[in-house]
Amino acid sequence: MKKEIPYKIYLEENELPKQWLNLRAFMKNKPAPLLDPVTMQPITLDALSNVFCTELAKQELDDTTPYIDVPQEIRDFYKMYRPAPLIRAYCLEKTLGTPAKIYYKFEGNNTSGSHKLNSAIAQAYYAKEQGLKGVTTETGAGQWGTALSMACSYFGLDCKVFMVKCSYEQKPFRREVMRTYGANVTPSPSTTTAVGRKILEEFPGTSGSLGCAISEAVETAANLDGYRYALGSVLNQVLLHQSVIGLESKTALDKYGVTPDIIIGCAGGGSNLGGLIAPFMAEQLQGKAHYQFIAVEPASCPTLTRGKYAYDYCDTGKVCPLSKMYTLGSGFIPAASHSGGLRYHGMTSTLSQLYDDGLMEARAVEQTKVFEAAEYFARVEGILPAPESSHAIRVAIDEAMKCKETGEEKTILFGLTGTGYFDMVAYEKFHDGKMNDYVPTDEELAKGLAGLPNVE
Ligand SMILES: *Cc1c(COP(=O)(O)O)cnc(C)c1O
Q1: What pLDDT sits at residue 80?
Q2: Which of 145, 138, 143, 141 is nearest to 188 (CA)?
């Protein structure tokens, strides 16, 4: 007899993952190597260790080890807020009147409010192990900066955050959460770095961008003894740490014999989606199962759906290694949108390769459609979703409604990456009918793509 599926599927402590899953180890077509911005050759461990902690640099370059142990200290920290609940969206299914079965993995259950803490704690741990004094980073919407501040305070590390200036001004409460955890927060571009000063000279009055804040954080780490740089998305190491999302989800579903047909996630730099799909995609790459994977991005920053697959810089200042990825060009500045976490110009190399190989689909959705889905979801499921996460909700609802038309009882799993408490200005614009759906023209995209470096 089939077990009835509870509203929430819990995992016992001994069912939590003890190893992360390195998806690249399962790929026949490996993502292209990172290039050193100075030599334009594949970057060496030595060069990368000047930017990141040595252990993280090793993880960054490792595309052969399928499983990597999660150190006990990190597992202990994970226990404070994990397992993240896996919820059967019974209320949503009923209200939609769909025969589809919908599940979501909710990662907003910690103070930082998103999945980013899963990698922040790992990056802080390895910095501590190496005997470093602290780390530097950038933050756009503020979720990553908050997560890293929490992780650093747990291990007694200093944390210097460059926060994109418009967020710094628009989201003072985010800034104060970071300071509560002891972080030092600087609006970017700033006069504290050469890159920042140069950008300010060229574009006085600029409200900043993620690419620029990254350059400032990297420069600061390079000039300080005992500091390294930390990044909250895009990197291989971040996807590795985020595999905890997919591993927990799969263990929970397996307990009830549930197999998803469709797996959906929002995609900014690609870390939550890469983590959610990791064990499922690994099965598929071994020919053991078949799933439909859907990446959802904003129509205002359509990296996968309208970008180019090419080597590009990860930052505006061109100080970081180059990555082969779907990109809109490192000079592309997306229109101001309310999904700060999805405004990055590139996509992690692993998902880029899987997408290029036809193993994953991508959809671009407009902002007001996303907020319609967000509000609908809040009213029926109770959780106030982050705008970023609501991209996945939008497509999950769309797929469930297709099932209603066809009568198919598909099982849908989507990632609900965080809560929207700090995004109420966005919700206010939506409620007041003042939200717009800016979609860049082909000419605008062509400008960003024209700036791609000439590397094969
Ligand atoms: C940062 C963020 C994202 C996007 O980042 P990915 O690396 O693509 O996962 C999505 N949702 C929330 C809540 C975020 O904070």
Answers
A1: 95
A2: 138
